[in-house]
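LOG
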Amino acid sequence: MARLVFTPQSTVAATVTATKRWVPTLGIWGASAGAGALLLLSVTPLVRRELLEKVPVLGSYYQDKTPASDKPF
């Protein structure tokens, strides 16, 4: 019968193992949260003007082409 011998793992090795395990998951959740925040805040003029209009391909979609005479404020 084989004997199992457990050796203690160093703190650095345990941290590296945990980091390798959690980084992809946290990256996916972070990207999803960022996309959701941009979706919800895309109607805010500050976010639209300062962030979304400066995206190279999609910037023209978010530009406000409403004449000044038709704006209420």
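LOG (cont.) second protein
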Amino acid sequence: MAAQQSQGIQTLLEAEKEAAKIVQQARQYRVQKLKDARSEATKEIEEYKKAKERDFKAFEQSYAGTTSNAQTAVDNETEIKLQAISESYTRSKDLVVKKLLDRVVLVKPELHRNLKKLGA
């Protein structure tokens, strides 16, 4: 009976070793699957980034011409307005200086309005 118990214990120990080996293989398999999934996800992310970057570059190139055209139009309009302001300044500067000098030099001696009320 001792031999039978010994044989039963030996069988249980072997079964336990086999189960531990199976569990270890399952863990290794799971770890490998996680690594594969991560690397696959990284590849997909990189492909997605590249695709979006290409789309953005295409979008940017399609609208790059319109921004340069708009900038050119704004520059031309600004130049025209600056010329108009310069011409207006050139035409009006003498008249403005004359009006200012006339006002500064023109002195009418009269009583202040508050002083007039007191005297009346």
